[in-house]
Amino acid sequence: MDLANEYLKHSTGIQYVVITSLLNEFENDVSKMKGTVMDIGCGPGNNTKNLILPKISNDAVIVGFDISKNMVDSARILNSDEKRLTFEQMSIETTELPSEYIERFDHGISFFCLHWIADLKCAFENIFKMLKPGGTFLSQHILLFNGYNGYLKLSENSKYREYLKDARRFITPLYFSKDPRGTLIKILQEVGFQVLHCSVREKITGYKSQNDRKELFEAVNPFVTRMPDDVKNDFMDNLIQETFKEETVLFRKNDNPLEEDKIFDLYKLIMLHIKKPCVP
Predict the structure, then answer these.
(1) CA-to-CA distance for 140 and 25, rounded, in angstroms?
(2) CB 137 within 8 Å of CB 160
(3) 3-class SS at 208?
(4) How far apart are CA 219 and CA 201, in angstroms?
(5) pTM exceeding the 0.70 threshold for the entire prediction
(6) For 222-275, what is each residue's pLDDT tens digit?
(7) What is the Cα–Cα distance from 267 to 18, expressed in whole angstroms?
(8) CB distance 33 to 106 below 8 Å
(9) Which residues, in sequence order, are CB contacts of 137 under 8 Å at separation 6+?
(10) Which residues contact 266 (CB under 8 A, 6 or more apart)?
C-alpha cells in the first residue's frame, strides 16, 4: 500500500474497470460536483487525474489525500502539470482533524481505500466534518479480497507472526460482519449522513499470468515492507498458496498444455452514495 511504482503498474486492472463503471453509473451526480472535491486515498493520483477529474464539473478542483508520504510525493510529481489537482498527506482516521479541513469541501470521492480503515465510524465522522452542508460523497471499497484469510492464517505462523501481529488492522471490519451492508448503513446514519445508495457488488478479475497476480498481491500488501527479502519471498509464496484454497478463486484450464491455467479472483465491493444534510 506504500509502493507507488508497483501500485501504478497494476492499477489499470480491476480498479480501472470498477471506477469507470461507477463514475458512469452515477454520471449525473458526479458531473454536478462543483467547487472543491476531496479524493480520499488518492494514491499516486493517476485515477484522480485520468478517471475522476474529467467527470466532475470543469470549474471544480480536487484535493487528493493519502496516508502515505510516498504516494503523495509521487502524486505531486506525476501530476505537476494539472493545476486543478493538489495533494496532501493525512489519515482519514485521525482523531485530530485540522481545523482548515472542516467544511472545506463541497463533495467527496473515495475508491479502493476505505477497506484499509479499522475505525469506520471515526473515518466517516471526519468525512462528515469535512463536507459542507448539502455535500455528497461517492465511494466504493473492497468487502471480500482473497488475501484476507491468508493474512489471518499466516499471522499464526511463527515465521511471520512478528510482521503480521496487527493483521486484523488491515482487514475491513465489515468482512467479519454477518450483515456488512446493514452494519455500514447503521454507522453512516449514526454519524448523521443521509444514505442515498448502498449496495454490495461482485466483480471478477483475471490476470495476464499467475506471476502478474502475485505481483499485484504484493503491491497491495501492507506487511511486506516490514520483512527482509528472504522472509518476504517465502511469505508471498505461502500467501498465494493460501489464496488458492478459497472458493472465490477460479481456474480455467488452458488448451495449450505448455501454458499455465488462467486464474480469476472474485471480489465483493461495497458501493455507497451519501449526503450531509443541509439542516442538522
Answers:
(1) 13
(2) no
(3) coil
(4) 23
(5) yes
(6) 999 999 999 999 999 999 999 999 999 998 877 777 677 889 999 999 999 999
(7) 11
(8) yes
(9) 107, 108, 109, 110, 127, 131, 193, 272, 273, 274, 275, 276
(10) 144, 146, 202, 203, 204, 248, 249, 250
